[in-house]
Design a protein that fits this description.
4 helices, mainly alpha
Length: 71
Amino acid sequence: MAIDQDNKSSKAAEFAAGADTKNVGLLTELFDFLRANKKWWLLPILLVLMVVGVLVILGGSVAAPFIYTLF
């Protein structure tokens, strides 16, 4: 029974320590994921998706006539 109490208290302490950590940004967490899991082949796909997303956002703005001339 004492082992269960020690396990619960260590889990509670671990949870509290995790709650006190600083929040990292999405790009930082994504880069850490790519580096830790050696998924470097995902980087070009993500970059193309980000560029397409930026073009879609700019396509609905004042910059749209300038973007349409590129294509």
